[in-house]
Backbone:
């Protein structure tokens, strides 16, 4: 094992999962996860993210490939022998037990000392903000409180890795946002590895150290939230991570691209000369101006107030642009559109 590999907590090597002749859930997945890292698997339903989680947990065995944990092959190791715990969207709490006994369940299975159990449960309930709830029945708790109990139960055994399969999916929007912050704080406080599965790009961007974008059992891009958002590798990533204007272009030469009928300076290089490309511009990076001072000219077709900004569509000669701005123009108004070079992102055509 190399020095680089020794820093990895989990290595997934050439993992393939075929459920039947028609369904390949994962195709030759290679991925590593570092210690104390918050990694999010992000993608639409059926992309393979939950299958990846289940293979790490040991709930399923891959058709081929290996799951390596701290340098040891655990591909065929049963779940109870792995140093991981899982929190599901359906919390699977025991309704006949109070909060204390739910959190203590795993410790009792391990036949931990009663004094140790009480100390650990108290510590976990304090961490998830449920101090004093130990005698409460779980069916009297709110959804957010039940989710905290499930997390406390999973953390009580002090796993090396906490696997979270869309754990916030059943919560309302406000509570979900609150729990995003709490989960990230818990992960930093505990210093353990979190592997999080979601189809919600906002969750991924707000919590993760690393995002793995998946589609049809294949990894599309791996990177920090900033990298994945600002430098998408292909049209799927650009469209899935936030909203985007994606339009055909022609890379004339390094740092010069043509789209929507005119030439634009950009910062990208290495695409060759006179090569067809895809151009990505985020809606918030399109700036409105008077028509005569715009790089492009168009007419406002729709305006929707989104709370923190207005969402407008602007029809130019060759494209209908999505624009986010704190200022709005009325439907039918002529406007100019301006884009600075740094906000123009170039991708290989058809990626």
Residues:
């Amino acid at each position: 094992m190399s020095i680089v590999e020794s820093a990895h907590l989990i290595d997934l090597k050439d993992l393939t999962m075929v459920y039947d002749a028609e369904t390949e859930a994962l195709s030759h997945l290679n991925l590593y996860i570092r210690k104390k890292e918050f990694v999010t698997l992000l993608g639409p339903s059926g992309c393979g993210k939950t299958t990846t989680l289940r293979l790490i947990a040991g709930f399923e065995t891959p058709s081929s490939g290996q799951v390596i944990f701290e340098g040891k092959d655990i591909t065929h190791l049963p779940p109870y022998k792995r140093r991981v715990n899982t929190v599901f969207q359906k919390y699977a709490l025991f309704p006949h037990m109070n909060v204390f006994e739910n959190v203590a369940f795993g410790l009792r299975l391990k036949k931990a000392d009663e004094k140790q159990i009480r100390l650990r449960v108290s510590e976990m309930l304090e961490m998830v903000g449920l101090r004093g709830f130990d005698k409460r029945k779980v069916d009297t708790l709110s959804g957010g409180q039940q989710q905290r109990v499930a997390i406390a139960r999973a953390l009580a055994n002090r796993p090396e890795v906490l696997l979270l399969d869309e754990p916030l999916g059943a919560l309302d929007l406000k509570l979900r946002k609150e729990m995003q912050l709490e989960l990230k704080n818990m992960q930093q406080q505990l210093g353990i590895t979190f592997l999080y599965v979601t189809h919600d790009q906002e969750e991924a961007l707000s919590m993760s150290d690393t995002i793995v974008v998946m589609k049809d059992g294949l990894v599309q891009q791996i990177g920090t939230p900033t990298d994945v958002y600002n430098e998408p590798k292909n049209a799927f990533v650009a469209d899935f991570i936030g909203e985007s204007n994606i339009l055909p272009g022609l890379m004339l030469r390094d740092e010069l691209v043509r789209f929507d009928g005119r030439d634009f300076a950009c910062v990208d290089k290495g695409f060759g000369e006179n090569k067809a490309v895809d151009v990505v511009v985020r809606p918030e990076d399109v700036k409105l101006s008077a028509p005569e001072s715009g790089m492009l000219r168009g007419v406002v077709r729709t305006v929707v107030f989104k709370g923190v900004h207005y969402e407008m569509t602007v029809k130019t000669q060759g494209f209908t642009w999505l624009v986010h701005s704190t200022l709005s123009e009325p439907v039918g108004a002529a406007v100019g559109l301006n884009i600075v070079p740094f906000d123009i992102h170039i991708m290989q055509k058809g990626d």
In short: Residues 243-348 form a domain with the OB fold (Dihydrolipoamide Acetyltransferase, E2P) fold (CATH 2.40.50.140). Confidence is low (pLDDT under 50) at residues 1-6. The two ends are 34 Å apart (CA to CA). The chain has two domains: 3-235, 243-348.
